[in-house]
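Q: Hi! First time doing this. I have a protein sequence and I read that you can turn it into a structure. Is that right? Here it is:
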Amino acid sequence: MTAPSTEAAGFDIALGDIADLSEVVDREALRDICRSFFDLFNLSVRIYAADDTLLASVSEPAELYTYLQKFPKGRKVVSETVDQVKRTRPTDSSVLRHQTIMGIVYDVVPITYQGRPVGRFVIGPFVPAELEQVPKALVRLDPNLDRLEVRDLLMKLPRVRANTAERITSHLRGVLDLLLFSSHRAHLTSEMHVASVRESYRELAEKTSKLQHAYDRLKELDQLKSNFLATVSHELRTPLTSIIGYSEMLEANIAGELTGEQREFVETIHQKGNQLLGLISSLLDLSKLEQGVMRLTLSDADPKAVIGDLASTFLPHAMKREIAIETACEEGLPTLRVDPLRLKQILSNLAENAIKFSADGGTVRFAARYTDWEDDADGAGAVLMGSSRGAVAFDVVDTGIGMRASELEKIFDAFYQVDGSATREHGGTGLGLSIVKRLVEAHGGNISVTSTYGEGTTFTVTIPEPEE
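A: Yes, that's right. Below is the predicted 3D structure, encoded as structure tokens:
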């Protein structure tokens, strides 16, 4: 039989209620108790749950019952006796003694907890110590019974005095009460822990759901932002191209000779138009990178030629502020498989920042060197198993204002600027380094930065050599 649910029966384990002995007590423990009492007193012990389920039993077959079952009436009496004992349920906390026509006795003892019956145990069969004669009712069961054998078998059953039986039942009841108390407390602690874990899991699941919803919403807004930037940038670039084109024609005197003041105005229009075009191009690049639609046109590139081209490009700009350009390139560097236009965009952005943030008379250094590349795409734990190959590290070093450690974690975020105030000394949109990082990663490389505030900054772009 299946034990009734505590919820269905109206019991609350969290409030200390139990409906059945089997809910909290281990059957093996009950069996051990029955075994110890049997060994001490040679009395059979059976423990039942409130729903009549047999939880533990240690007994020895009664030879008298075996003998009686050879006779029809004897078999019936034995069967009825066993059935009556199993169905006997004390109505209160008192011990109920069940005495059969055979003179055999069973003590049925209720097991209660917190005033509620949760089971019972049965001690017997045994015969009272004062019994000397075979009961007449037993002898009359069948004329074929051997009276002497019946008497011998009856006297083989355990003989217990009334006061001894009371002490045994009282002692066993106390042991079971103690076991029930300790088991219930342990069970209650376990249930409370499980309830706490379930509540924590529910709260965690609820928070996870909210976070997932917020993440999905932010992802959607980010996509809308990217689409908006792409659309606006594209629409702005068309008229801006016309503005730049017409300003160039005016500078070339196609519409007539310009006065000195007019030429100055046209040059300003041309310059600011190019700045705005650069910003729009940056927005379009960022949008393409975020959407994963930017394609790289790969070809071979010589690191030494890349450094030389970078230095010649920025030397005139550096000379205007008396900034020295230094180059260093190791011999024998491997040829890289990159998009030359995008690699130039990466290094040019870093070089432009290096010159911009360096004081007049400072030094900017461009270098290329060989380094090892650890392929750790699957996480830090895969480094030991990763295939090592060579890489080229491009260093852009300046002696400028530097950055604090707290700023280094944010400089690759889109639109972030170290000096974001309206009165900042250096211009810019805060998109350059974000685009640089994404372009480097698109090449399968990485970018790192070290900086000392007031002394200078070093950006390192590492691009792995092609796999064989």
